[in-house]
Each structure stands twice: as C-alpha cells, then as structure tokens.
Design brief:
Strand content: 15-25%
Helix content: 25-40%
Mean pLDDT: 94
Shape: globular
Structural class: alpha/beta
Largest sheet: 7 strands, mixed
Number of strands: 14
Low-confidence stretches: none
Distance between the termini: 22 Å
Number of helices: 11
Order of helices and strands: EHEEHEHEHHEHEEHEHEHEHEHEE
Strand order of the largest sheet: 2-1-3-4-5-13-14
C-alpha cells in the first residue's frame, strides 16, 4: 500500500517510521497541508494520512478520488474537518478514536496549575534574576469546584486528576458515564448549574452542532465572576470574541487554551517572524491572564506511538478486509462506526 502523508512534522515521521517497518507500506511524507492545490500530490497513492488542520472538503475529496485514492486515514480522533457526507461512496474514512487520554488531561491540569500559581510569570522573572513575589499570589485548587463538560475517556481522566487535588466535580454529558457520579464529590448536573457553581470549567467534549460555541456570551453571563476556563478539546467550542469580552469585563478570571477556532493557518507553524493578522488571537495572547499553547496537549511520546500504531493497523485491516474497526460511515444523516464489510455496497 502506498500512503501520501500530509502535514508531516519531524515528530510524526519519527513515530511512524518506528512502527511502519512491520507493515507492507510505502509512505511519502509531505510537509505541506492537504488542500485543493496539494491534493494532486496523492496521484498514484492508495491512501492519504492527514491531521486536524488539513482541508478535506468536497472539492478535495473529489480530487483525491480522481487521483485514485480510496482511503482517508486520520491520525486524530476528531473528524469535523472532513465532509463526511461527501466522502460516502468515495473514500473510506478511518480515525484514531483514542490514543492517550492522559496526555490531554495532564496538559489541561498543567495549564491550570501554571495559570493559578503564576508559574509562567515566575519563570520569566527568575530568568532576569527578579525574585520578587509581588503579584504572584494564586489560589488553592483543594476545595474548589470544577465543571467538566464531556465525560469521555479524557474527561474522566481529568476528573480523576482533579479529585486527587481534593476538588469537587460537577459533570455534564449528553450520555453520562455509568458509575462515575458518587452523589457527593462527583455529580452530573445540567449546564445551568454547572455554569453557576463552577470555579473552573474544563471542556472535553467533541465539536458537534450542539456543542458549537457552547461557551458564548450567554454561557459566560451565567458563570461565576472570576471563572477560569480551560479548553484542550476543539477551538470552536468557545466563541473567542465572547471570551475576549468576558476577560476584559473581568467576568473571566483566566483562560487556558490549547485550541482556537481559527487555528488552522497558525498552529503547528513558526510564525514568529510574521505579523499576526488574527486580531482576536493577538488580543487574547496579550492578556496577562491568558495562556495559549498551540494544540500541544496530545504531544507525548506515548500518544504519538499510539497514533502511529492505530493508524497503521487501521490501514492493514482495510487492505485485508475492506473495512477497519475504526472506520466512520455516513448513514441516515448520522456518522457511525462502520458495521459492514463494504460501506459502499
């Protein structure tokens, strides 16, 4: 099998080279992202492998299909950047549903601790031999209430970490996890109660029509004054303009963002020599109570290895059986796991 690998970074190539020798594949690595202009690079390949900021719209899907590509291997869990309806009947789409929930959950807690204990500011000061403690006062996490929106694998790990700090948890999920709530320290509640009672809110849900801008002006108005917001999930869960307004009005005490709605042309690249044209992101980064990392939460060695292994196994299964257990299928207006030997038959 021949695979065209888009948006390849050195850490991607390292992890995939470690596992690909065990599979009968040939991989061509491209540092460019997949879009309408670069789709022709996949001519003669059986599959393309893409990441979260590659463009897989209807036009790209048609071009890939014309070039002979039949498989789209996502080396990520999310697929909201793929036109799944248009892909049906043309490309088999498979993803990595789980790699390391600990990587993302631990990064979320790292951001929270960095923010509330002012570690980033202390680090900069000490580099200049400034050892003053002025304006570095934080607050204890112990006894605080954290609202966790989304209790899948990552959300549940994050809850475990929070419980280790002695925090109380208010959880919200359309499909509650069985056995998670204990009625005292962990409770499932509706969003109104979560917003009203949480000192900290952390997002761990997928991006859907229902969760798009789940944090908007109305949601922030229902939150405690001084609430701390964490987003390590999907950028479009947060209305960035509303967040900026909330920070300026002091409604939001701090924000820790690993994702951003308009990140696709910015994150994963060195833009230090360029003027940042996204005024909203520039203003967010300029705020003293905002921490932004560039979609880094997944980036651990364990997660990279798991992504590579699952992606290669997905492709092996498809070549052997015509379907992978991690294949996604657009059926009856819904995106579901593939349940047949041939989704196209």
């Amino acid at each position: 099998m021949k695979i065209a690998f888009y948006d390849a970074k050195p850490y991607d190539m390292d992890s995939f080279r470690r596992v690909s020798d065990a599979y009968p594949v040939t991989i061509k690595y491209y540092d460019t992202k997949l879009n309408e202009d670069t789709a022709e690079l996949a001519r003669g390949f059986d599959a393309v492998c893409v990441f979260v900021n590659d463009t897989v719209n209807a036009a790209v899907i048609d071009k890939l299909y014309e070039e002979g590509v039949r498989v789209l291997a996502l080396r990520c869990a999310g697929f909201n950047h793929v036109d799944m309806k248009h892909a049906y009947g043309k490309l088999h789409v498979m993803h990595v549903p789980a790699y390391s929930p600990y990587a993302v959950a631990e990064h979320a807690m790292a951001l929270l601790l960095t923010s509330v204990r002012r570690i980033h500011k202390a680090y900069i000061r000490s580099r200049d031999f400034n050892f003053s403690l002025q304006n570095l006062t934080g607050f204890d996490l112990h006894g605080k209430t954290v609202g966790v929106i989304g209790t899948g694998r990552i959300g549940r790990v994050f809850i475990e970490i929070c419980r280790g700090f002695g925090m109380k948890v208010l959880a919200y999920d359309k499909f509650p996890a069985e056995g998670l709530a204990d009625g005292e320290n962990i409770r499932y509640v509706e969003l109104d109660e979560l917003f009203a009672k949480s000192d900290i809110i952390s997002l761990h849900c997928p991006l859907t029509d229902e969760t798009y801008h789940i944090i908007d002006e109305d949601a922030l108005n229902r939150c405690k004054t001084g609430v701390v917001l964490l987003n390590t999930s999907r950028g479009a869960l947060v209305d960035a303009e509303a967040l900026l307004a909330g920070i300026k009005s002091r409604k939001v005490g701090a924000a820790c963002l690993d994702v951003y709605e308009e990140e696709s042309d910015l994150f994963f690249e060195d833009n230090s020599g360029h003027i940042l044209e996204d005024d909203t992101l520039a203003r967010l980064i300029s705020m003293p109570n905002v921490i932004v990392t560039s979609h880094q939460a997944f980036l651990t060695q364990e997660a990279l290895d798991s992504i590579a292994e699952t992606t290669m196994e997905n492709l092996r299964e498809w070549e052997a059986r015509g379907v992978s257990k991690n294949e996604l299928c657009y059926r009856n207006g819904n995106i579901e796991p593939a349940g047949c030997e041939s989704c196209f038959g």
